[in-house]
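If you are new to this repository, start here. Below is one unmodified record pulled from the training split, so you can see the exact layout before writing a loader.
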Amino acid sequence: HIEIKLRPPEKALYFLFLKHPEGIYRSSLSDHRQTLYEIYASLSNMGDMSEMKTRIDEMVNALSSSADEKISRIKRVFTDAIGKDLANHYYIQGDVADVKKIALDRQLVVWNNHE
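And here is the target side for that same chain:
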């Protein structure tokens, strides 16, 4: 039992991808803006809603590198915690123009109050 520590924006993005086993194109993240708002709000104790929305808006902006930076950090955190071979099942992956997804079997996912 290893706890993976992610900041709320990264965790919100990770949970979004967990909810979509079919994957999400990086270019269509903006279609999931509202879901990201809801996930982020449930994770963050940050009181400023406008700052939260700004972070999500930046993350879903196709011209911004914010989501890519968060995906890279998620990969690094998993790899550092459990090693490259095992982490391969847990982090968000996919080629630049292809769908990005998490390979993890969703039957292994147990949701708590942060879904």
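Two things worth knowing about this chain: The longest strand covers residues 99-102. The chain has a mean pLDDT of 90.
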